[in-house]
Amino acid sequence: MDAFLGEKLFSKRSKNGLMTYVLPKKNFNKVFAMYSTHYGSIDSEFIVPGTGERLKVPEGIAHFLEHKMFEMEYGNVFDKFAELGASSNAFTNYTNTTYLFSATSSFEQNLDLLLEFVETPYFTKESVEKEKGIITQELRMYEDEPEWQVLLNLLRCLYHNHPVRIDIGGTVESIQKIDVDTLYKCYNTFYHPSNMILFVTGCIEPNEVFELVERHENRKNIGVQPPIERIYPEEPGSIHNPTSTVKLDVAEPMFLMGFKDNDVGYEGFELLKKEICIGILLEVLFGKSSVLYERLYEEGLIDDRFSFSYEGQKDYGFCTIGGETRTPERLHKEILESISQNQARGVMEEDFARVKKKFLGDFIQGFNSVEFIATSFVSYYHKKIDIFDYMKALNEVTFEDVNWRLKTFLDFSRHATSTVMPK
């Protein structure tokens, strides 16, 4: 029970290692469920558990698997969810693949369907070949998507070898190498219950969920699997390239700059504190109430699509800053000058206190949304972070911490830029 938020979390571990969590929200009329595996686009090399086999698989296979899981022998799973009145979806990111549904009725049938299709791989040679054509079209479409290209090119500048620099969907060449046997090997490795989490929130009784899950999981005779050994290439501390510029069919240039985080190698509470600390720093420097944002906005150098974010994982971290702008070179110069000035004088204590209160308010308000609760819980879980440690971590982040990150994280030698210019 979290006394401050008034939320109670229930959990149960199945015999096969699956962790199920339920956070009831009695006053809601909707149920939101996520079934997630700790398997993302960067997991392209690993040791197959129980065999000692070192396997390097084609890039994009996690995303390919996500597409294939919605195909069952009887047809398309999306149609089944629609028949039950539920909205369903899935996504693959760098570190995990997640399947979800939201519904206001027929909860048990929808949850049973979620468990059934994620736990029932059905791959045929014909369907795999067909999927290659579909994903090839998707990849080629993204080649013309400025928002995706500006980010992908930035990551290629920041990283020499780490697979975060590879498109989540892989490449047209890599997906041609995917076959049925490799799909099953990846599925059996990463979709084992020991590597997964089921999270349910909304108007639901925990015991209803646990009983349904146990009935479902007990049908299978699967033991707990040992942790998966993931293999990532050595990554130098330096950036790969300082800049990238491409031309696409855009009305106005798109600019993104980023800083590579070399303070990596840990997860859990310390990673949460770092995330919050860097988040506060970026909000103070570039948020809508910052001096820089107001000035650049008034001068027409940026618009309300200007944004910033930090992505922090155990093995990598980076931030991005930018948006559409008439003059990318000037925006780059203004941002660097502002960082230099702040590094010289330090963040103002009143700005730190104001943003810290904002973070607390945003977090508390988030618990009015089942989507926020589920997405945050699952994302944190894969990083060995307890969502209810958020306020403790926020409280422990000090003014001195933020100023230290200002000087160490925003290191100009580890920054790069990516620009999409009009043709």
UniProtKB/TrEMBL annotation:
Name listed for the protein in its UniProt record: Insulinase family protein
The Peptidase M16 N-terminal domain, residue ranges: 59-170
Any one Gene Ontology molecular-function term assigned to this protein's record: metal ion binding
Peptidase M16 C-terminal domain boundaries: 177-358
Organism the protein comes from: Biomaibacter acetigenes
InterPro entries in alphabetical order: Metalloenz_LuxS/M16 (IPR011249), MPP/UQCRC_Complex (IPR050361), Pept_M16_N (IPR011765), Peptidase_M16_C (IPR007863)
NCBIfam families assigned: YfmH_fam
Annotated Gene3D superfamilies: Metalloenzyme, LuxS/M16 peptidase-like
PANTHER family reported for this sequence: METALLOPROTEASE, ZINC-DEPENDENT PROTEASE
Transmembrane parts of this sequence: none
Pfam families recorded: Peptidase_M16, Peptidase_M16_C
